[in-house]
Amino acid sequence: MDAGFTAEQDEIRRTLRELLRKRCGPADVRAAVDTPAGHDPTLWSALAEHLGLPGIALPEAYGGVGCSVTELALAFEETGRRLAPTPLFATAALAAPLLLALGTDAQRAGLLPGIAAGSLTATLAVPGTHLSTALALTGDNDGGWAGGGRAGGVQARRAGEGWRLYGQADQVLDGHSAGLLLVAAHAGGFARSRTLLFLVRGDAAGLVRARQTALDATRPQARVQLREVAAELLGDEETDVRTALTALGDAAATVLAGEAVGAADQVLKLTVEYVRQREQFGRPIGSFQAVKHRLADVYVQVQAARSAAYYAAWAAANGERVGRLALAQALEALRRASAEGIQLHGGIGFTWEHEAHLYFKRAAGDELLFGPVHRLRAHAADAARLFQGQEVTV
Asked: Acyl-CoA dehydrogenase/oxidase C-terminal domain: from which residue to which, for each copy (predicted)?
C-alpha cells in the first residue's frame, strides 16, 4: 500500500477545502438547512460545475471525472469538515453507483450525465427505517426488509408494460428534493419472492414526499409514500440487487468514514483553539494537564480513525472491503471529539446555537442511521468469521 497522495488527490482536497472555507461557514450551514430544500443550490452548483464533484467517481463516458472511491472519500473528508449540507452523499455515494452497476445501457446514458453535471439529484429509498440493513452494514441483507410479500414495505406489481409501486419509506436521505428515486421494492409474491430496484421520477403522480424533522438537520431526511406510482425497473428481473446493495454498503461506509474523520478533525481543531484562549485562574485552560490529556486522547483516536479511513479508501479501489470497520472507528472518534468539544467549551458549549452541537448531532445522527458502532463491528466480525468455533468464557 502506498500511503502517499497523488498530486491530483492533493489538488482535489486543496481546492475543495478552499471553496468550502469561503462558502460554507457555520452561519451558511444554518441558513441552508432552514430552507425547504435543506441545502444551498448555489453551493451545489459550484461543487458540480466547478469541481465536478457529483461525477468524480463516474466514468468519463458519462461526463464523470473517472476517479475511484478513493477520491470520493477524500472529497467527503472535506465536506465533512464543514458539515456541508448538500445532496452529494445520496446522489454520488448511493444512487449513482447503483445506476452504474445495474442500469441498462439506455438507463446509464440517459441518467448518469445529468448526475455528473449536477442537474439531476438522486437518492436510494428503502422501506421503513431499514437503510443500514439494506446496505448490510449492521446485519445480513436477506431481503426481508423490502416487505417479503407481506403487508408493509414497498410492493411492486406489473401494470401492462410497466410497474406500479405501493408502500412507504421513512428515512430517505434528501428524498424530499431528489429528482430521481431508486426505490427498493418486493416483487413476485410468495412464489417468486425477490427484491428489485425501480426508477421513480420526483414528479411522478402518486408520489407524496415530506421532509422530516431530523436530529441532524445537515443531513435531511424525508418520508416517501408511493401510491400506485408508475416506475421503471432498474436493469432486468434477474438483477442481483442484494449483492449490489451489499457492495454499495461497503463503499458508502468508506465514504462516510472519510466524512466523519473530517468532522472529528475540525471539531478537535475548534476545541484546541478555544482552550488556548479561555482563561481560568489567570491562565489558559489549555495549559492544565487534565485538559491536555483529554485532548491528547481525542487526537490519538482521530488519527487512528483517519488511518482506518484512508486504508479503507485504498482498499475499496483495490477490491477489498473494510469500510464497515473504518466507519465504526470514525463514528466513535467523531462522537468522542464532539462530546469533549462541548464539555471543554464550558457554558457556551452547552447552548444549541454553538457550532460544536452541529458536530455532536452529526455523530449521533449517523449512528442512528448507519450504526450503532458496536453493531458495525459485530457484523464485520461475523462476516469475517472471526470468532467461528471459539467459545466465550465469562
From this structure: 254-380
Spatial contact of 272 and 287, defined as CB atoms under 8 Å apart: no
Question: What is the reported pLDDT for 394?
Answer: 42
Q: Is CATH 2.30.30.60 the classification given to domain 123-239?
A: no
pLDDT tens-digit map of 327-373: 999 999 999 999 999 999 988 888 878 899 999 999 999 999 998 99
Q: What is the pLDDT of residue 265?
A: 98
Q: How confident is the model at residue 194 (pLDDT cuts 50, 70, 90)?
A: confident
**Calpha distance 176→221 (Å, rounded):** 7
Integer Cα distance of 115 and 119 in angstroms: 6
8 A C-beta contact, residue 331 and residue 363:
yes
In CATH terms, the fold of domain 7-120 is Butyryl-Coa Dehydrogenase, subunit A; domain 1 (1.10.540)
The Cα–Cα gap between 176 and 147 comes to: 22
The C-alpha angle with vertex 329 and arms to 328 and 335, in degrees rounded to 5, equals 90
243-383: CATH homologous superfamily? Butyryl-CoA Dehydrogenase, subunit A, domain 3 (1.20.140.10)
3-class SS letters over the chain: CCCCCCHHHHHHHHHHHHHHHHHCCHHHHHHHHCCCCCCCHHHHHHHHHCCCHHHCCCCHHHCCCCCCHHHHHHHHHHHHHHCCCCCHHHHHHHHHHHHHHHCCHHHHHHHHHHHHHCCCCEEEECCECCHHHHCCCCCCCCCHHHCCCCCCCEEEEEECCEEEEEEEEEEEECCCCCCEEEEEEEECCCCCCEEEEEEEECCCCCEEEEEECCCCCCCCEEEEEEEEEEEEECCCCCCCHHHHHHHHHHHHHHHHHHHHHHHHHHHHHHHHHHHHHCEECCEEHHHCHHHHHHHHHHHHHHHHHHHHHHHHHHHHCCCCCCHHHHHHHHHHHHHHHHHHHHHHCHHHHHCCCCCHHHHHHHHHHHHHHHCCHHHHHHHHHHHCCCCCCCCCCC
Q: Pull the grid cell for residue 349.
A: 458549549
Cβ 258 vs Cβ 92: under 8 Å: no
Q: Which three cell numbers stand for residue 188?
A: 413476485
